[in-house]
Design goal:
single chain, 289 residues, Rossmann fold, 2 domains, eight-stranded mixed β-sheet, 42% helix, binds nicotinamide-adenine-dinucleotide
């Protein structure tokens, strides 16, 4: 059966798979036009933290979105409940290829036949995890950065994605305060993320080699670039385990990359210092999430 684009989008929910750092933020953006978002996560702790985050942020973020009004969020540990009648499903589970393959097989079986299935993976092309998917024409990468603050999105075909999906998303997503840009060929790290990976790697090298400290690098960055945070504070926000997973993936593709950045990250991860989510990373944070 050929894929047909979803209709009646206005009245159908969006489903987000994973309630972690990104899942709850992606859900937040899709609530800004008053609609229903359902989040599926196996972990009740992650669900509770996502609920607290959304309760705090839904009203203010909707208020600053054009035509916005806060919607509703349902958090469930049952995947079919989350998927029921969703027009768009965004996967945001940890960056592990085996997990992504399993989840996409399930999503393709369980979601509505016209649902668009998107992955928020930072470093894997969706072409790498569609082997259990019957309808690859409805699958794509839809990579968010750090909404509601960094609101650009990369979108990228899995090699089979119906081009009408790209057009639909380019037209539709800006209403939720997020802005898609299409990678026109397959690219590990998409567009902006690839550039950001090189910046993180070199910042980590400078510290791993003992040339400078995270705090000094961030201060120089802020003074010269005019941004409120430098690369180390931003890595703490992302989660150092996630940053390490991503860098491991780039290194698997390109063995010539230096090991120092990965070794430095691993020291923090092994000590349980994952950044904002544990309260300690390159910095100490007051509010672990
Ligand atoms: P995270 O570890 O904060 O959250 C992942 C969530 O998935 C957890 O709440 C976990 O309980 C849940 N989960 C695990 N297995 C599951 C399963 N089988 N079914 C349902 N839920 C499950 O991770 P994150 O930082 O939100 O990253 C998620 C994805 O988003 C990754 O692919 C990552 O590359 C990507 N991403 C992360 C960032 C970032 O800044 N953290 C930015 C862009 C993209």
């Amino acid at each position: 059966m050929a894929f047909t684009l979803p209709t009646d989008i206005e009245n159908r929910p969006v489903a987000v798979i994973g309630a972690g750092t990104l899942g709850r933020r992606i859900a937040l953006m899709f609530t800004t036009q008053g609609g229903l978002v359902r989040i599926f996560d196996k972990s009740p702790k992650a669900g509770d933290a996502a609920r607290a985050y959304l309760d705090e942020n839904m009203a203010p973020v909707a208020a600053r979105t054009e035509g916005g009004k806060p919607g509703r969020v349902v958090i469930t540990d049952d995947m079919p409940d989350a998927l029921a009648d969703a027009w768009l499903v965004v996967e945001a589970v940890p960056e592990r290829l085996d997990l992504k393959k399993e989840i996409f097989g399930e999503l393709d079986r369980e979601a509505a036949p016209d649902a668009i299935l998107a992955s928020n993976s930072s470093s894997y092309a969706t072409s790498e995890f569609i082997d259990r998917v019957q309808h690859p024409e409805r699958v794509l990468n839809m990579h968010f950065y750090m909404p509601p603050v960094q609101n650009a999105i990369d979108i990228m075909s899995d090699g089979h994605t119906d081009p009408a999906i790209m057009d639909l998303l380019k037209a539709r997503l800006p209403r939720y305060g997020v802005h898609p840009f299409e990678a026109h060929k397959e690219s590990t790290g998409f567009i902006f993320n690839r550039i950001w990976a090189a910046i993180k790697r070199e910042a980590l090298s400078v510290v791993a080699e003992g040339v400078s400290t995270p705090q000094d690098v961030d201060e120089m960055w802020k003074i010269n670039m005019g941004t409120p945070a430098g690369p180390f504070r931003m890595m703490d926000q992302v989660g150092l385990d996630v940053v390490l997973d991503i860098e491991n993936h780039y290194a698997a593709e390109n063995p010539a990359l230096p090991a120092g950045p990965r070794e430095l990250l691993k020291k923090y991860v092994d000590a349980g210092h994952l950044g904002v989510k544990t309260g300690q990373g390159f910095y100490t944070h007051d509010t672990p999430s």
